[in-house]
């Protein structure tokens, strides 16, 4: 099995783990951004409009199925491009000097690649979470296509690019930096490459901490883009928001600057457990693949 296939399978498993942990908080965040309500009001609306606690899992099936594919793209592109950049170096010393820069480039490339697949998924997920009359992802996607055309499924593409490209590079860079912080983790990385995966509870806790830190830091500066993305994608009339900047100005005019940071608490609260689960799932699955399959390192 090739390394890129290992990354693809492990990324798919990691994405599913992240959705299971984070979807209820994501639903609250989406409602805050969609309605410009506080956390308490958003929770009340979710429960009342979507029949109790099940409302927190409204629209989960579609991202659960698709998020695995999106994460597999992220980890496969990231791993393959990082190995390509490192292979171009003429010496081990040059590889070490450029290691962090290569991580940033590879992570950003992975973020850009996944946006093209993620945008339609995000549009459908947002509609399922916020609009009660739509009950099924395929019905929702058909409704969007019939009313708004193919471009309706790519509503909010520009803010998604701003939200995901460079932040994914920062995300991967922070994770790898955190992994390198302790001397113990150098042994863990060698063990991972050798195929033993997560070897102890201590290593699992360090991976979880690194994933949580990477998730929180990568989200800190992109919340306004996520808000604009959600507002644009939840709007069923394509003439309301002409572009990203028009939506920015409209939000500020109607609700003030604070509206651009609506949902920040839920985003930060969600980022830590989701990314801990994502990287734990990725590392565990990668270890299992190395354990059961012969890996072609070329």
Question: How would you sum up this structure in a few lines?
Answer:
The protein is mainly α and 298 residues long. It is 78% helix and 0% strand.
Helix coverage percent:
over 70%
**Which consecutive residue ranges, at least 5 long each, have pLDDT under 50?**
none
Class per helix and strand makeup: mainly alpha
Distance from first to last alpha carbon: 10 Å
Can you summarize the main beta sheet? none
Radius of gyration: 20 Å
The helix/strand series, from N terminus to C terminus, equals HHHHHHHHHHH
- Tally the beta strands: 0
Share in β-strands? under 5%
What shape does the CA trace take? Answer: globular
DSSP summary: helix tally: 11
Mean pLDDT metric: 86
Task: Give a structural overview.
The chain has helices spanning 3-35, 39-49, 61-87, 92-130, 137-148, 157-181, 183-194, 201-219, 223-234, 244-255, 264-292. It is globular. It is mainly α and 298 residues long.
What's the layout of helices and strands?
Blueprint (H helix, E strand, L loop, with lengths): L2 H33 L3 H11 L11 H27 L4 H39 L6 H12 L8 H25 L1 H12 L6 H19 L3 H12 L9 H12 L8 H29 L6
Helix pairs in contact: 1-2, 1-3, 1-11, 3-4, 4-5, 4-6, 6-8, 6-9, 8-11, 9-10
Task: Please name the defining characteristics of this protein.
single chain; 298 residues; mainly alpha; 11 helices
């Amino acid at each position: 099995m090739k390394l890129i296939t290992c990354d693809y399978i492990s990324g798919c498993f990691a994405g599913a783990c992240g959705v299971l942990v984070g979807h209820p908080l994501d639903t609250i965040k989406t409602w805050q951004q969609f309605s410009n309500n506080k956390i308490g009001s958003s929770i009340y609306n979710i429960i009342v409009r979507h029949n109790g606690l099940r409302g927190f899992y409204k629209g989960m099936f579609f991202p659960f199925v698709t998020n695995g594919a999106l994460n597999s793209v992220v980890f496969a592109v990231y791993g393959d491009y990082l190995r390509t950049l490192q292979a171009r170096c003429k010496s081990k010393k040059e590889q070490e000097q450029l290691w962090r820069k290569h991580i940033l480039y590879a992570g950003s490339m992975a973020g850009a690649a996944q946006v093209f697949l993620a945008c339609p998924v995000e549009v459908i997920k947002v509609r399922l979470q916020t609009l009660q009359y739509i009950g099924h992802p395929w019905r929702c996607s058909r409704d969007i296509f019939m009313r708004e055309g193919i471009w309706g499924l790519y509503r909010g593409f520009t803010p998604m690019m701003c939200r995901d490209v460079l932040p994914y590079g920062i995300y991967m860079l922070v994770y790898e930096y955190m992994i390198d912080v302790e001397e113990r983790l150098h042994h863990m990385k060698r063990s991972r490459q050798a195929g033993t995966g997560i070897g102890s509870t201590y290593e699992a806790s360090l991976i979880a901490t690194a994933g949580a830190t990477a998730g929180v830091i990568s989200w800190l500066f992109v919340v306004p883009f996520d808000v604009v993305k959600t507002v644009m994608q939840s709007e069923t009339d394509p003439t309301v928001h002409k572009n990203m900047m028009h939506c920015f100005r409209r939000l500020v005019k109607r609700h003030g600057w604070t509206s651009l940071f609506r949902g920040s608490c839920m985003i930060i609260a969600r980022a830590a457990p989701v990314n801990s689960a994502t990287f734990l799932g990725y590392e565990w699955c990668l270890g299992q693949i190395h354990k059961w399959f012969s890996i072609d390192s070329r």
